[in-house]
Amino acid sequence: MHDHHTPSGKHPKAAQHLRRRYGASMEQQTEHEQAHRAFGRRDFLKLTGLAAAGGSMMLGSNTLRAFAPGALLSQLALSDCGDRTLVLIRLKGGNDGLNTVILRGNDEYYNIRPTLAVQEPDLWALSQDFGMPNYMQALQPLWEEGKMRVIHNVGYPDANYSHFRSSDIWASASDSNELVATGWIGRWLENELQAFAATPPAAPPALQIGVETNMIFRAVGGNTALSISNPQEFYQIALSGQLYNLSNLGPEPPDRELAFVRTVSNNAFRYSESIRDAYNSASNQADYPDTGLAERLAIVARLIKGKLGSKVYMVTIDGFDTHADQALNHPRLLASVANSVAAFWQDLGAGGQSQNVLAMTFSEFGRTIYENGSLGTDHGTGAPMLVFGDGIGNGFHGTAPDLVNTDQYGDPFYSVDFRDAYSTVLQNWLCLHPDVIQTVLQRPLGNGIAGLLPPSSPPPPLNNPAALLGHHPAESEPGAISIKYSIQSRGQVRLSIMLPNGSALRTLVDEFQERGSYTFHFRPSRFFLAPGEYVYRLETGGRIYQRNLKV
Q1: pLDDT 10s digits, 160-191
Q2: Which of 45, 149, 379, 421 could form a disulfide with 51, with the two C-beta atoms 3.0–4.6 Å apart?
Q3: Beta bridge partners of 223
Q4: Residue whose C-alpha is closest to residue 377's, from 127, 26, 2, 46
Q5: What residues contact residue 551 under an 8 Å CB cut-off, 6+ apart?
Q6: Which of 207, 216, 233 minimizes the C-alpha distance to 58?
C-alpha cells in the first residue's frame, strides 16, 4: 500500500520549482503575460519579413491564402506511396502528458499530484507499467488491435515556454534559437509540386479544417493548405462563382496584380468543386460525439473516402492550457480526443480507407509535473505523442518522464526529439528519399524512431497526374508537329516551348482543362522558331514533364 499524499497536500519540491522559472505559471501574472507575448506570431512575421508576404482574400467567411511562386528546394524525385494520407491532430495549449499516459504505481507521481493524479481504479491498462484514464477508454480497441503507438516524453533542446514561439518551433521543425519562416509540411509539398504556382492541382495538397491557418503549411512561395470551416460554404462558391479570364491581361504591374488575385479566386473555385464532389460522393458511417473535434474529423473522413486527394489534413482541439481547475477541464478534452479518434477510425474502416491513413497527435509542450496553487499545471517540457494506423502494432517508444532526476526547473528531460517523429513519418509513411527528408527538415537526418512504423514498401505507383506522350509530324497539316499529352484529373495546364537551358520561348497552351487526352498542332514557323534543338514542357497538377524536340 502506497501513501500517495503528503500531510501538507503539496509535494515538498513544488514551491521551490515554482520560484525558479518565471512566466510558466499564472501566479507570476506579469511574467506569464510576457511569456505569452514573447515571439508572438505577429512579431515573428515582422522579424522574418513575412508580414507583407503572399496575399489573402475572403470568400464567404473563409480566408484563402494566395499561392505565390517561390524558389524550388530540390529536384529530387519522390517515391510514390499511393493514396496514403497523414492526419495531424493538434492539442492546442500544451497537453498534460503525465495525465494522458499514466505511470502506474509510481509513488512520486501520486505524491507530486495529490489532487490531480489519476488513481489506479480509474485507469485502463496499456501495460503493466502504463495506463490511460478510463475517459479515454474508446482508444482501448485500437490499442488491442495493434493500431496505436505511444511516443513518450517528446520535446526538443532548450525548450521555449511561450505558446506562440513553441508552436512555431514545432511547425517549422527548427531549433529553439532559430527563426525559420516555413513549415515542414510546406517545404515537403513545395519540393514535390514544383509547378504549383503556375498549374496547381485540382485538389488542395493540404487541408486544414478550421478557420485558423497554421505555419506548418507555409512554403517559400506561400501557404500550401486551404483552411475551411465547413464544405457547405465552398458549395456556395462553386455554385455562384465564375472563373475569371486571365488572357486579356497584359504585363503591366496593375494587370499582373489583377492576374494574381484572379488566379487565387480561380483556384478557390476549382478547389471548392473538388471538395464538393468528394464530400458528396461519400458519407459518414460512424456515430461521432457532439464535439467540435469530432465534427472536423467527420469532415476529414468524408473527404478521404470521397477521394479528394489531399495528402495532409490538420484538425485542432483547443483548451489544453490548464493552469486552473484541470480536473474539470482536462478529462473532457481527452475524452473528446479519444471518442473522436475512435469514431474516425471506425468510419474510415467502414469505407475501406483506414489502411491508407496515419494519424498523429502533437502539442506545443507538456505541463509541469507538479500541481500549482490553482489546482492546475503550468507550462512544462515534453509530452507524449499518440500515433494511429492500421498494421503499425502497439507499443512504446522513448523513455517515460523521470519525476525525480529533473532539470533546474523541476521539469523532466525530454527523451525523443519531435523531429525524429517527423522524419520517421516522412520516410516510412510518405516514402520520401532520405536526402529529401534532410532538405525538408533542414538538418542532418537522425536515426528516426526505430519500430514506430513498418519500413516503407510503396505500392505499385498510381497513374501520374499526367503523361507527355510525345510528338510526331501532323498528318493533316504539313510542316506542323502534333504534341500529345493526357491529364488524369482536371486542372490548369500549361504547354510551353523552351530552349535547352530552360529559357521560356513560347506558351502554346495555358488554360483549365478537363481530364482526358489532348493533341496540340504546333507549326514552328508560325511561332518564329528557327531550326534547332528545343524542349517542350507540360506543367499540370503541380508537376513538370518535358521532352526534347528538334525543329
Answers
A1: 999 999 999 999 999 999 999 899 999 998 87
A2: 45
A3: 218
A4: 26
A5: 481, 524, 529, 530, 531, 532, 534
A6: 233
N residues, the chain: 551
Which residue carries 492541382 as its cell? 201
d(CA 230, CA 207): 12
Q: Which three cell numbers stand for residue 351?
A: 469505407
pLDDT class of 462 with cuts at 50, 70, 90: very low
pLDDT in tens, 312-368: 999 999 999 999 999 999 999 999 999 999 999 999 999 999 999 999 999 999 999
Confidence of residue 239 (pLDDT cuts 50, 70, 90): low
pLDDT at 410 over 60: yes
- Per-residue pLDDT, 50: 27
Element (H, E) at 496: strand 491-498
Of 402, 399, 444, whose CA–CA distance to 420 is shortest? 444
Radius of gyration of the chain (CA): 26
Helix (H, G, I), strand (E, B) or coil at 263: helix
> Hey, which residues does 149 pair with through a beta bridge?
387, 395
Task: Give the pTM.
Answer: 0.78
pLDDT exceeds 80 at position 299: yes
pLDDT value at position 61?
A: 30
Residue (of 76, 125, 75, 131) closest to 103 by Cα position: 131
For the beta carbon of residue 528, count every other beta carbon within 10 angstroms. 8
* Identity at 9, one-letter amino acid code: G
Query: Cα(479)–Cα(214) distance, rounded to whole angstroms?
Result: 53
Question: Do residues 116 and 369 touch, judged by C-beta distance below 8 A?
Answer: no
Structure-block grid coordinates of residue 341? 479518434
**Max CA-CA distance within the chain?**
99
The cell numbers describing 190, all together, are 513545395
pLDDT tens digits for range 244-292: 666 777 778 777 777 767 766 666 677 878 888 889 999 999 999 999 9
Q: Which residues of 163-178 are buried (b: 16+ CB within 10 A; e: fewer)?
A: bbbbbbbbbbbbeeee
Helix (H, G, I), strand (E, B) or coil at 440: helix
Buried b (16+ CB within 10 A) or exposed e, 106-122: beebbbbbbebbbeeee
- DSSP codes, 270-335: HHHHHHHHHHHT----S---SSHHHHHHHHHHHHHHTT---SEEEEEE-----SS-HHHHHHHHHH
Provide the 3-class DSSP secondary structure of residue 237.
helix
Q: What is the pLDDT of residues 476-522, one digit of tens each?
A: 788 889 898 888 788 889 999 999 888 889 999 999 898 888 999 98
Structural domains of the chain, ranges and CATH numbers in brackets: 14-233+319-326+354-441 (no CATH), 466-550 (2.60.40.1930)
